[in-house]
Amino acid sequence: MSPSLPPKAGLEQLRKQAKDLLKAHKQGDPSCCAVFRWLKQFAGKSDANILSGAVSLVEVQFALAMDYGFKSWGEMKDYVEALGAMRAEGLPLAASGSLAQWVIGSPEDARIEGDVWVFTGDPENVRWEVGGMSWDNYVLSADVQVARTAPDGTYRVQLTGRGTTIFCQLVPGWIVLAYIGEGFTHVGKQKVHVPDGVWVNFRMKAEGGTITAFLDGREIVSAAIPCGTQGMPGLLVNGQKGAVVRIKNVRVEFLNPTPEQIAEYRTSALENWHRWVARHGDVLPDSRRAGEREPA
């Protein structure tokens, strides 16, 4: 189900709309009748019958929620509140109760400074995931600063999808797009220059089976992914040697959110993955081979 709420709709706006519909009904305005037909007592009734019937504000709110594609006013309320929190707060890494879940192979090589995660040495696969397997049509971004401490310093900062099986990689001199199918397959790459010690905004858009990479708001490279883009967004830092990687402001923004995606946003990624496995087994959507993801 895809809701059809007005852009950036808020609860106060929706409450006012319900009151306006109730007022229109009392004034005999037939423009409200299409919404009221969602109520059982008015299904298939003429405008005259609807306008002469009794209706409460609670019933109007229910009808309005149904008209926007929800099962109830409560479901729409939860959706709007969660979406508002996501837009306002994003997913701050250091915040208490953050929904982000980090897995760090070598904790001694990771520390936090204010709202910045700092990775030194070789942290052996730092990974973060959020959401669930229904996720698609979103933008994932992070602010990244890399300082190489050796001439041959290397690093990989990867915005990922489908539980770290789709990769949008920032590596020295390049942005690379790849996925895991019958192996690790590159599908696009483009040269970039990221000066040492400078913050850059690294962004990936996953939309309808295509991923697109951006650097500081500029589109760099785009490619279709044969296995699709549905699945958990995430971030991965690895392949690091002779470099310090700093990460902050990890954010995810839905392009066309569904109630299911909002519900998964409010639940831990690990719990969402266990629910997926219980329903579908240890495989990914459109997976080319079973068991290609080891959950966090």
Query: Alpha-carbon distance between the termini?
Result: 28 Å
For the secondary structure, the number of strands is 14
What is the name of the CATH class of the largest domain? Answer: Mainly Beta
**Strands ordered across the widest β-sheet:** 1-4-13-6-7-8-9
Main sheet specs: 7 strands, antiparallel
Radius of gyration: 23 Å
Overall geometric form: elongated
Superfamily at the CATH H level of the largest domain? Exo-inulinase, domain 1
CATH architectural type of the largest domain: Sandwich
Discrete helix count: 7
Average residue-wise pLDDT: 84
**Strand percent estimate:** 25-35%
Query: Which range best describes the helical content: under 10%, 10-25%, 25-40%, 40-55%, 55-70% or over 70%?
Result: 10-25%
Assembly type of the chains comes to single chain
Q: Tell me the domain tally.
A: 2
- N-to-C order of helices and strands: HHHHHEEEEEEEEEEEEEEHH
SS content category: alpha+beta
Q: What is CATH's topology name of the largest domain?
A: Jelly Rolls
Low-confidence stretches: 91-100, 288-296
Describe the SSE topology.
Elements: H1 11-26, H2 33-36, H3 47-52, H4 57-67, H5 73-89, E1 101-103, E2 110-113, E3 116-119, E4 126-129, E5 138-148, E6 154-161, E7 166-171, E8 174-180, E9 184-191, E10 200-207, E11 210-215, E12 218-224, E13 234-241, E14 243-254, H6 259-265, H7 269-280
Antiparallel strand pairs: 1-4, 2-3, 3-14, 4-13, 5-10, 5-14, 6-7, 6-13, 7-8, 8-9, 10-11, 11-12
Helix pairs in contact: 1-4, 5-6
